[in-house]
Amino acid sequence: MATDSDAGTSEYRREIPIPSPVSQPYWDACRRHELSGQRCRECNWLWMYPSRMCHNPDCNALDNYDWEQLAGTGTVWTFTVNHRAPNTEWEADLPYVFGVIELDEGVMITSNVIGCDPSEVHIGMPVEVVFEDVSDEISLPKFRPRST
Amino acid sequence: MAEQRLAVVGIGGTPYGNPEGHPVTSLHVEAAKRAMDDAGLSKRDIDGLIVCDHSPDVKTAYRTAEHMGMATWPKQFLTAVTNGGVAAAMANDLAAHALRSGEATNVLIVGGGAGRVRRQAQAALAPTTPAQSYTERVAGRGQETMSLEFDVPYGPFGVISFYALAAQRHMYEYGTTSEQMAAVSVACRKHAYMNPRAMKREPITIDDVINSPYICEPFHLLDCCLPAGGSDAYIVTTEDRARDLRHPPIWMDGIGHAHSAYHTGLLCTRSDYGFDMVRQVGKVAGERAFAQAGIEPRDIDLVQLYDSFTMTVLMQLEDFGFAPKGEGGPFAEGGRLELGGELPLNTNGGMLSMGQSGVGSTVMFMNEAVAQLRGDCGELQVPDAKHALVGSVSGTMSNYGATIFAAD
Predict the structure, then answer these.
(1) Strand ranges (DSSP E) for B53-132?
(2) What is the predicted pLDDT for the residue at B150?
(3) Strand, helix or coil at B360?
(4) In angstroms, what is the C-alpha Rg of chain A?
(5) What are the pLDDT digits (tens) for A13-26?
(6) Which chain A residues are Cβ-neighbours of B166 within 8 angstroms?
(7) What is the pTM of this model?
(8) Is B198 left (phi over 0), alpha (psi -120 to 50) or beta?
(9) Which residues of B touch A111 (CB under 8 A)?
(10) Is B182 left (phi over 0), alpha (psi -120 to 50) or beta?
């Protein structure tokens, strides 16, 4: 998977995730530029967003999952073009795309769509993950257009 | 034994805007005073208190009781509900349990926000923690939210970006247009024009809305509600007491709510119940409230719907059953939501034009419904109004409340 070579590391002043004991493996994988989800050992359910209990409504499995690498490809499920920034650290990027990607495995992830003009982004647009190294510990998965 | 019917017997609110810069508790006290006077009750009659605001914990209820001079005697039922736009709907449910169990006899529900004053005060405090990000402060308390770890690092502009995601998807799936969303804002402003309490009163057109600057596409500035300081309060009691009070009781006959996901990625994921970001659990809340009240959407004379954004209203119209799914946009056209139309919306101007007092707006909508059913709304009165529905929404359309009121 590609790296966004423009991303700075030492000057990054935006909100940075603080991993919890449960989410640490997810962020460790991101550091290796791999996107991952949790797969239940009891019912085989795949879920996104680290949590200890399986997300299958009919499965109460606790702490019984494997981390599974995802393909990192999907389509834009919805998005917005931000014309206002939450703080000064985002102003230089305006306008930018904040959206939800439906990954090919069927799970959804919130992210930015980068690497194209915001006016080109549309629902159903094929995208692929690209990692932005924002600190020594954290790489943020973002998405850019891919050709199909 | 049949359940006791519940009634709202007193309503009251502060002016909107809070130019004096009161902290929220001081606004609560003023709203409470007006509601008690309206009901003809003294504070010694109030043995249940529920406070709705953006305070982080239940202590806002203790503070409000203290500021009302109620600190020194025992209150059996005292709590706070702080979960945003659905707070008063949940407070109704708590009040119902307290009243029917006999734990309380008169429950005062008060909600509000201080508006910009509050934000300035927070900014003034910021230099004391210069090195800490918001994420660090939350994590340092041993708390976590998925949104903080997985949404906020991508730069959403407050809650507006999240609702914009729903609006964009709704437009894609159902062909909803910017003009249809704008019709909601135009209806609210038309009503605000006749409401001296409203923050914005000059009339606007659909063109004004879609020509106002984009905030988060597809939302323009005039698709978004208007932050304002203010507080509102009402008093709920049971049928046996309500009959003896000053005003004809307005019955709270249906209380429904439902909750789904808070974090955006999970909210978008279609559940095996068929819900996702644009097909929301408001349907469950509405069905429950209508079943309790024993009426149907076509019996409703007016609605007060949480209008954080114009799309929030269109989705409630669908999920509560006033329009088929996906047809909230066409439903809003042609003045249907304006006074004189088929289903008048937010007859005081709503949060889009009267103002949004944070969590307190959920209380404001309850009071406007009650005032309408009393027939007290002057030139804003919906003729012969007998039934009203109040819709409450929080999160990004994560939590829904539906409250149905009836007049005799």
Answers:
(1) 77-80, 106-113
(2) 92
(3) helix
(4) 16
(5) 898 999 999 999 99
(6) 78
(7) 0.94
(8) beta
(9) 154
(10) alpha
